[in-house]
């Protein structure tokens, strides 16, 4: 062995190198989703609402007299989960169930004044969260990213 040369093999990769997994799209989507979810959760800590609950409140506000089944379909949430979410929101006094004015067999939902106030607070948090998220992209990139993500989930 030559003088001054080490026999230990040096690692040419940095500590952050994740190898071939770096080319896996699903891996990056999962990491991005985790980061976005953590920020969302931090932003919403004081409200005591989940992402799904906020989505339901927002949809009910945008579509007064919407049916529970329609909310589940539009948000791609299964029947049991949407029922549990709506039950929790009703228990908190945010949503009321009622009978459809056009179809007596159909049960509809609307926000209570308390639910509307909660939604106003949630919208402020969402705008803060969206500013944080969108700050990483140009407006054109945001539009492109939304369009590309729709291709996955639609």
Q: What does this protein look like?
A:
This protein has six helices and three strands, in the order H-H-E-H-H-E-E-H-H. A three-stranded antiparallel sheet has the order 1-3-2. The termini are far apart. Helix 2 crosses helix 5. By secondary structure, it is mainly alpha-helical. Helix content is 58%, strand content 8%. The longest helix has 22 residues.
The level of helicity is: 55-70%
Order of helices and strands: HHEHHEEHH
Tally the beta strands: 3
Task: Report the structural category.
Answer: mainly alpha
From the alpha carbons, calculate the radius of gyration and give it in angstroms. 23 Å
* End-to-end CA span: 63 Å
Helix count? 6
Name the quaternary structure: single chain
Strand ordering within the main sheet: 1-3-2
The description of the largest β-sheet is:
3 strands, antiparallel
Strand content: 5-15%
Summary tags:
154 residues, mainly alpha, 3-stranded antiparallel beta sheet, 3 strands, 8% strand, disordered N terminus
Describe the SSE topology.
Blueprint: H1 25-44, H2 51-62, E1 66-67, H3 68-75, H4 79-91, E2 95-99, E3 107-111, H5 113-134, H6 139-153
Antiparallel strand pairs: 1-3, 2-3
In short:
The chain is mostly helical and 154 residues long.
């Amino acid at each position: 062995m030559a003088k001054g040369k080490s026999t230990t093999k040096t690692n040419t990769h940095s500590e952050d190198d994740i190898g071939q997994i770096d080319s896996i799209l699903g891996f990056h989507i999962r990491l991005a989703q985790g980061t976005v979810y953590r920020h969302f959760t931090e932003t919403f800590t004081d409200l005591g609402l989940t992402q799904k609950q906020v989505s339901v409140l927002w949809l009910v506000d945008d579509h007064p007299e919407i049916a529970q089944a329609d909310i589940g379909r539009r948000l791609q949430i299964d029947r049991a989960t949407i029922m549990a979410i709506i039950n929790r929101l009703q228990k908190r006094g945010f949503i009321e169930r009622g009978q459809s004015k056009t179809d007596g067999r159909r049960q509809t939902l609307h926000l209570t004044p308390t639910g509307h106030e909660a939604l106003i607070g949630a919208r402020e948090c969402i705008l803060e969260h969206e500013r944080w998220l969108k700050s990483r992209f140009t407006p054109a990139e945001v539009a492109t990213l939304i369009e590309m993500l729709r291709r996955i989930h639609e």
